[in-house]
Amino acid sequence: MFCAPATPKNRSLVRLTLNSGLDRAQLARIVSACDAVRGQVDLENWSSTRRLRKLALV
User: Fold this and answer.
1) Claim: this prediction has a pTM higher than 0.70
2) Residue 48 phi, psi dihedral angles, 5° rounding
């Protein structure tokens, strides 16, 4: 997790690194955890998500 001053004010960044040694069950667990967190942090209303949605419409 990166927070200010490494990121802009009021912004955070989570860096996720995977490797080829993970099996399908481990990958499924990671995807499930990311899906659960997505709902908790209201990702749909983040400005970056809205910006990407706009770009997809162009």
Assistant:
1) no
2) -65, -35
